[in-house]
Amino acid sequence: MWLEIICGLVIYQLVRRFFSDDEFSDVETSDSTALFSVAHRLEKLYGGKAYVGLRIPDSDTASRQDIDVVLVTSKGEVLVVAVKNLSGIVTVTSDGSWVCEGGKHHTTETYPDPLAQVKKQASVLESYLEQRGVTLLEGNVSCKVVIPNPSFRTIHAFPSEVITYEEWQHLKPVSRGKLSGWVKGAFSTGKEMQESSHQKLNFILGTAPMWDRVELKSSKIVLGEFLEFKGKQEDTLALRNIKRSKVDHVSIQKTSMFGLGNFSLELDYVFACGIN
């Protein structure tokens, strides 16, 4: 009997190891997952294409501006979005910084003014687009800060550019015209030139630098900078022959012990420059 119990426990742990999501249990409500959730809803609400996790070069600081989401609608309208997946009580200081207390880690965190940051990101994005051949009309890139976390609490009144959780939940799809004042038209030229500029804009954003992305089972996503692969030599040997610049994505599957199942990871641009 004891032997059967022990064998049962061993098999349970093996199955749990290969099928459980516990290792990534915090990913479901992670900042990365929140970005893609917001981007997906923006596409449903306003149409077009949302680009997530852009890292746009900033020539003024010789660094990169990390932009959460850029939405380009089917009309060529442009929206730059900062996603603040904050839980807890948020207060705003005199310099515009946000102080968040009692979040999921029960700590106090201070964040620079998110609205000022996203406006800076939009400015850097406009300069980057201009360098690559697309000039938007002055002032025609709109900025928003979206707070999608239901545990967000505050007593402050925010500017209209800040969309709180309650406002985010009640947004409705708009007509085929402009986005109810959210986004101004990006181009003022003729129809053919608008279409050409729109296509070029999507091409530029689709090929712009961005964070590496790992897609896990249950549609969980992690953004980051993956510099190297670690593991058994036979697992990584083939990867060393792949150049990062030549790869769009790679799918990795691993079969569990006893053939009980498998899981897969899809990684976009995950090959570090040092891996040739």
From TrEMBL:
Residues 30-148 form the NERD domain. InterPro entries: NERD. PROSITE patterns: NERD. Pfam families: NERD. It comes from the Eukaryota. This is Uncharacterized protein LOC104789518. It comes from Camelina sativa (False flax). The lineage of its organism: Eukaryota, Viridiplantae, Streptophyta, Embryophyta, Tracheophyta.
